[in-house]
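Hey all, quick one. A colleague (J.T.) asked me to put the 1-deoxynojirimycin job into the tracker so the inputs and the structure tokens live in one place instead of scattered across chat threads. No bug as far as I know, just bookkeeping. Sequence used:
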Amino acid sequence: MRITDTSDLWWKTAVVYCLDVETYFDDDGDGVGDFAGLARRIDYLADLGVTCLWLMPFYPTPDRDDGYDVSDFYGVDPRLGTHGDFVEVIRTAKDRGMRVIVDLVVNHTSDRHPWFRESRKSVDNPYRDFYVWRKDKPKKSANTVFPGEESSIWELDEKTGEYFLHSFYRHQPDLNVANPRVRDEIAKTIGFWLQLGVSGFRVDAVPFLLAPDAGMDFGDPHEFLRDLRRFLQRRSSEAILLGEVNLPYREQLDYFGGAEGSELSMQFDFVGMQALWLSLARRDPAPLVEALGQRPATAVESQWANFVRNHDELTLDKLSDAEREEVFAAFAPDASQRIYGRGITRRVPPMLEGDPRRIRMLYSLLFSLPGTPVLFYGEEIGMGENPEIEGRQSVRTPMQWDATENGGFSTARPSRLVARPPGNGWAPQHVNVVAQRDDDGSLLQHVRRLAARYRQSAEIGWGELEVLEHDAPAVLVHALTSDLGRFLGIHNFAENPATVTFPLGDEPDGSMLVDLLGDARIEPDAGLVSLEVDAYGYRWFRVGRPGDGRLG
Ligand code: NOJ
């Protein structure tokens, strides 16, 4: 690869930041975040090192699933602003070197969507086939995604006496993507937002969208995804699809479009994320190493998106029952911190009992594991969840900008806020941007530094992974090598300092390790390098030698 390839395949070295406009910054003081507010925070995001914003759904919605229940694919929720405000954000972000991708939620609509209102009217309504209807409730069907909140994925609709499919909540009927008219609408939706300037989409619930479970007959479901990708790329050569596909690795390969890379451009690494938490619980990198070793090889254009938690429950569904219990016991000891029998409703710092060493080590991993890091807003300052808010919403509280009661998110009365910040040790008074902005030792500055070094180390996004052997089992030493160079990351999962010694490998004479987070230069002794790593410590190096331009 050449360094200039990183601009064509920009997503492979991006820093992605997910936020919900509703909870980010409220410009008009009504208690709800808005696009005008986000526009005022673009410089903050640019300064942090974000290069790609992912906006959670901002479309008109009855808001029964935080906007994932869309009632107009082409609209903007009037509480958040107008199309004009949206375009202003895209344009300002572009000016500051940031692309914007938006959530594409087309597996289902809200039941208030005009298509569904029509569809449920009669069996011969022109919109009937926009959704999936059955005369009888299928005897065999998949389990609901939300146990305890839903009991089935089929719902009887009184008006016509038939059942409709809803993979998620009953107020989210699944679209029938076997219907060419529905496919046209999905393509038009993609075309519409591209025309307004977005650089791609985070695609919601992809395996459900391809829905083989519902017995739909539309040939090879992956052909539909390939079609979408072809359409996307005809409209915009730089646009990407970042897919939510929580499946075992070997199935994910199909969603990339195999060796061709003809379907999703990127996928979240759910398996790696869960293995990482098991590693943290065990203070042993082995589960993470095993997971990374199982990642299938992909086309050069395809990329893994790494994350440590997202806006949903921190799912542990890919772990065995015993492994999940280990992670629960370590990080969500109270039943109220768990949901659906599989996930955790806490943010990272409370899970790690506020231990700054572990928190920093975790984000160091996020930015140095092979792939593209994705942050959930507020992670950069160590926001905690509000345990008084039930379920998945507990982690979706307003961004904490300053130490005032509303965290500087809004001037509205606290009772009017879209969500209340936590009130305990994680309150805005203790955790906020202003307090950390000029403090060199803050988490915010740590994440900012990691983002900058990651951007200067294209090997992380592009390189070939090698896990180096040595004799300190709690320490992960990984190398990422590309034509541009060799990056080394060292992470200590345990609470004791360690010394690691390993061969530098096949490098030209005079090569040494150049510290990327400090100013050390470590020269090998008889081909071996030996270095110290603190308790829960982390170190980043590049291999270089004088005169090769890699010492910086
Ligand atoms: C996945 C989203 O991340 C989640 O928040 C939502 O509830 C479901 N898809 C349904 O859209």
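Adding what we noticed when we looked at it: The chain has a mean pLDDT of 96. The first strand starts at residue 16 and ends at 19.
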